[in-house]
Each structure stands twice: as structure tokens, then as C-alpha cells.
Amino acid sequence: MARSQGIPARFEIGFPLPPDKHSAEIAGYHCWSDFYVDGKEWIPVDISEAWKHPEKRDYFFGSHDVNRVQFSMGRDLRLSPPQEGKPLNYFVYPTWKWMGGNTRMCL
Questions:
Q1: 3-class SS at 2?
Q2: pTM (2 d.p.)
Q3: Average pLDDT for residues 61-90, to the nearest whole number?
Q4: Is 70 helix (H, G, I), strand (E, B) or coil?
Q5: Cα–Cα distance measured from residue 2 to residue 60, given in angstroms and rounded to the nearest whole number
Q6: How far apart are CA 64 and CA 50, in angstroms?
Q7: I want to staple 36 with a disulfide (CB 3.0 to 4.6 A). Which of 5, 8, 70, 82 is the partner?
Q8: Same domain, 69 and 43
Q9: To the nearest whole number, what is the mean pLDDT of the chain?
Q10: Domain check: are 69 and 84 in the same one?
Q11: Residue 107 pLDDT > 60
């Protein structure tokens, strides 16, 4: 939506880390974004965390908590060296070349 209004924005994806646990399975990935304001640089926004924690709504408009690990930024990603086939929608799981083709490993 920001880009449609001429506001530079970027998509980020990673994993949330449970703040109250020292080890556990991570259920899935989490997405958030940043938008750019001249003179202030990139401003982080995490609307889903703000929705889950209404008391932190103002915090998640301008800050991210430390309970996350970012894996990639943007969409339609090309690796270096470039992978065969289409660009990746996101890059979370390891990818390697094997016998001339790409292989993705899901953990």
C-alpha cells in the first residue's frame, strides 16, 4: 500500500523467537515491513504484532522487538551465484547446487 502512494517500502521475513522460552520449535515464519521517510531513514512497522498486542501498538509503529531473526528482505530474490529457474519468493531455507540443479532443504 505504501508503494502505491509513492512511499518507499520493503518487505522482510524471518522467524519469531518466543520471549519466554529458551528452546522450542518455531511454528512458522513472520513478516514485517519498513517504510522510508526522508531525513528519518527506514521506519519499522509490524502491524500483526501490534494487532496481537494492542497495548504495544505505538511501539510496533517505529520499533521492532529483539525476539525475531531476519532471513531475507524483498521478494523475487536472485542468489549469488544465481539459482536456476524463477526468482525465490523469499529466502529462509538453505539452497545449494547439486549435480547441476538447485536443491532446497526444509528444516
A1: coil
A2: 0.72
A3: 86
A4: strand
A5: 17
A6: 10
A7: 8
A8: yes
A9: 83
A10: no
A11: no
